[in-house]
């Protein structure tokens, strides 16, 4: 897919300095630019590269003035970084603008879908599935019975959406995700054998939820596992049965949340965090990577460590921990001196 400087300037409402007909088909870092690529300059630390880059087009701020000869065509805009991001979004929309139903695909007679959808080859839509407008379902996606998918949602290749799941508008479910598998529920019988507790609930993803590749969200035992509006989940995250995550919370990769825990709004949770079940985490909480959370957390707390401490307390304790050997040696020396007196 090729774009000329003139086309890009039109999208960004920018001013061209150079050849309006030069074409690009790829993106690059400014220091690694090659012929046929587009790049941008937003950080002044990289200004020297604009004089050596081989990129065909460079997006720059309007106040940029070259002090030496350059070969790249410039597109001047109010904010180079924001304009480059806008262009990436535009490119993704063009690249992903697929429509139609590829074959082979299975669509149950009772399934229904809206306008302008894309259904990739080898996908499966079960009984009573309802798919909204402008939805894109990529190849090898399984959508179980009674699933609802809202408008403008994208389900990438290989995702599995179990029965009864409800997915809102403008959501993204990445490849390898499993939404709605059974929660991890077992109870011992009179012989001490573990018997499975039926998981009869579902999963609800509200609007504007993103779920990273390889993540799993389990269905509730009763009721719903709920991921509220605007939540962003990274790759390889485990969300257990009956968990609720509040609006606009962000969770990084490899975090696990055990059953029935409630996480508040606007939280930021680092990678590889472990959170026990049946606790409540307040709004606006910050949890550093690799922390272990085993208690309720109040609004606005920042935690680190395992088991997690208040962030400032952890840092103070860590200073002493690094000096532990010398402190032990001093104690031993004091005890030795005391015994010799």
From TrEMBL:
InterPro entries: Hexapep, LpxD, Trimer_LpxA-like_sf, UDP_GlcNAc_AcTrfase_non-rep. GO terms for biological process: lipid A biosynthetic process. Residues 21-89 form the UDP-3-O-[3-hydroxymyristoyl] glucosamine N-acyltransferase non-repeat region domain. Pathway: Bacterial outer membrane biogenesis; LPS lipid A biosynthesis. Transmembrane segments: none annotated. The active site is at 241 (proton acceptor). Keywords: Acyltransferase, Lipid A biosynthesis, Lipid biosynthesis, Lipid metabolism, Repeat, Transferase. Its EC number is 2.3.1.191. Signal peptide: none annotated. Gene3D superfamilies: Hexapeptide repeat proteins (2.160.10.10), MurE/MurF, N-terminal domain (3.40.1390.10). GO terms for molecular function: N-acyltransferase activity; UDP-3-O-[(3R)-3-hydroxyacyl]-glucosamine N-acyltransferase activity. GO terms for cellular component: membrane. It comes from the Bacteria. It catalyses: a UDP-3-O-[(3R)-3-hydroxyacyl]-alpha-D-glucosamine + a (3R)-hydroxyacyl-[ACP] = a UDP-2-N,3-O-bis[(3R)-3-hydroxyacyl]-alpha-D-glucosamine + holo-[ACP] + H(+). Homotrimer. NCBIfam families: lipid_A_lpxD, PRK00892.1. Catalyzes the N-acylation of UDP-3-O-acylglucosamine using 3-hydroxyacyl-ACP as the acyl donor. Is involved in the biosynthesis of lipid A, a phosphorylated glycolipid that anchors the lipopolysaccharide to the outer membrane of the cell. Belongs to the transferase hexapeptide repeat family. LpxD subfamily. This is UDP-3-O-acylglucosamine N-acyltransferase. It comes from Robertkochia marina. The lineage of its organism: Bacteria, Pseudomonadati, Bacteroidota, Flavobacteriia, Flavobacteriales. The gene is lpxD.
